[in-house]
Design brief:
The structure holds two protein chains of two kinds. By secondary structure, chain A is of the alpha+beta class. Chain A contains seven helices and six strands; from the N terminus they run H-H-E-E-E-H-E-H-E-E-H-H-H. Chain A has a six-stranded antiparallel beta sheet with strand order 3-2-1-6-5-4, sandwiched between helices. Chain B has one domain (about 40-260): 3-Layer(aba) Sandwich (Rossmann fold), CATH 3.40.50. Chain B is globular. Classes of the chains: A alpha+beta, B alpha/beta. At the A-B interface, helix 3, strand 4, strand 5 and helix 5 of A face strand 11 of B. Strand 4 of chain A pairs antiparallel with strand 11 (about 225) of chain B.
Chain lengths: ~210, ~270
């Protein structure tokens, strides 16, 4: 099977992009709740445009920021993405240069921020941010570890989202021929027991038929 | 002639010259950096740039921007300052520990994420060529294709007496150059004393330095309170600068030995 058809079948069974978006949304909601923060967000790097894109936002800015773009290598998120290093800042004065990009886009200037790169295998896929968690006496390395755990989860979510988008893009390029395979794969995936077995039997027959010279 | 047949790296016993190390029986912090100011030591901050005129940073002797276009490396005077705040923070920490060292900024960020690995390599290559005494690298890459070149550069630095101090990663991924034995790798401890640092008996992370709730220089002449291994790294860079300032003859191997001997969990209280 060609890569395109493989991707088409993949697109059928991968689940919808919406499902992965929901996963990312749930990760930022949980991160926000666990840290007791005002907001949390996930950025995905768009390599073609060389920009960071808000993919999920919880709390302050939710509903408006998704799709907003930032430069990929300046500001806090850009630094974290490029250097692969997590960063925590507290007691930030209301200097808009602190986080120019967020401030300009949202009008919301955080007093504190945690940012961690989303790494999957060799790739830096994006950045997870948690804004304005309550100030305590001291930050602890345990919180950093916790942030790292969320980051691992978010990175897997982003990777799945990217895979789903790629598969759909291939499908769109390949036009109707591949799309029918994707639909079939998706339908078979949802069938249960006897009907699934019957469908697979039928498809095997189709395969035999098509293999005839 | 036997000597001619010997490979270049062998040395007959009779030809071994004694090295006057001049180390005391017990290496103490006082011997290592007592009275040192960092004077005479050239430190390079490989990062997001350094804000000129920040009160916690003071004079920056030079600032360059590293760019790579079509494999062509361009090193130009940096007019942008700091594009994030992080480089300024690192410079401020080094300045606080080693007030009279010479600080340089090599900006390797700002030209986009795509291609940033090439810029990082070019920046490190430039810093090694310039013969800085200490290079602060609060950054890393996860791309394997850069690992070999980074490794070669780290070794080249090691043999040229340039000490690279690099932030370790606390995420479960492979990243470089901090994992290389020729650099000094640093993660964070939670204590407040900037001179407290620990040798790690279980590498690859070799040292822990102050990296939690550190008040650092930031953009606009401001300060912020910050946490991360990337702030622990300049603490060790500062201490390395002090040691090299008092003992300029030390190789990176010897410098690392002095760090070990003066670490707070080894004998460093002296």
């Amino acid at each position: 099977m060609s890569d395109d058809l493989r991707a088409a079948v993949g697109a059928g069974v991968l689940g919808s992009e919406d499902a992965y978006r929901d996963l990312l949304q749930s990760i930022v909601e949980v991160a926000r709740a666990i840290f007791g923060a005002k907001a949390s967000s996930i950025f995905l790097v768009d390599e073609e445009a060389d920009e960071l894109v808000f993919e999920a936002v919880a709390g302050e800015g939710a509903g408006e920021l998704v799709g907003t773009r930032l430069p990929s290598s300046t500001g806090i998120a850009g630094w974290v993405l490029v250097t692969r290093q997590p960063l925590v800042l507290d007691d930030v004065r209301s200097d808009p240069r602190f986080s120019r990009e967020t401030a300009e886009k949202t009008g919301f200037v955080p007093q504190g921020l945690m940012a961690v790169p989303l790494l999957y295998e060799e790739q830096a896929l994006g950045v997870l941010q948690v804004l304005d968690r309550p100030q305590r006496s001291r930050f602890s390395l345990r919180e950093m570890d916790l942030l790292g755990l969320f980051a691992s989860q978010a990175a897997i979510g982003l990777q799945l989202l990217r895979a789903a988008r790629r598969a759909r893009a291939v499908l769109a390029d390949a036009g109707g021929e591949a799309a029918v395979l994707a639909r079939l794969a998706a339908v078979v995936e949802t069938l249960e027991d006897d009907r699934r077995e019957a469908a697979l039997r039928l498809l095997r027959e189709v395969e035999l038929l098509l293999a005839q010279p | 002639m036997i000597e001619d047949e010997l490979p270049a790296w062998s040395l007959p016993a009779a030809a071994v010259e004694p090295i006057a190390a001049g180390w005391p029986e017990q290496v103490t912090r006082d011997w290592a950096w007592g009275g040192a100011t960092g004077a005479g030591v050239r430190v390079c901050i490989l990062d997001s740039g350094v804000e000129p005129g920040h009160p916690l940073v003071g004079e920056v002797q030079g600032a360059v921007e590293i760019e790579v276009e079509d494999r062509e490396v361009r090193v130009t005077d940096d007019e942008e300052g700091d594009l994030c705040g992080h480089g300024t923070a690192c410079a401020g920490i080094v300045r606080a520990l080693a007030p009279e060292c010479e600080l340089w900024s090599a900006r390797v960020l700002g030209a986009g994420y795509t291609g940033s690995g090439d810029v990082l390599l070019a920046g490190l290559r430039w810093a090694v060529e310039q013969g800085f005494d200490v290079v602060n690298m609060s950054l890393s890459t996860t791309k394997r294709k850069f690992a070999t070149t980074l490794h070669e550069l780290a070794d080249a630095a090691y043999f040229k007496r340039t000490t690279i101090v690099a932030s370790a990663h606390n995420l479960p991924v492979e990243s470089y150059p901090w994992r290389f034995a020729s650099v000094i790798s640093v993660a964070s401890h939670e204590e407040e004393d900037p001179f407290t640092f620990y040798a790690n008996p279980e590498p690859p992370v070799e040292f822990f330095a102050r990296g939690v709730d550190v008040e650092v220089a930031w953009l606009g002449g401001e300060t912020v309170v910050s946490t991360g291994n990337s702030f622990a790294t300049p603490h060790l860079t500062g201490i390395c600068s002090l040691i090299r300032s008092k003992h300029p003859e030390l190789t990176p191997f010897e410098l690392k030995s002095v760090l070990y001997l003066t670490a707070s969990n080894v004998a460093g209280k002296g």
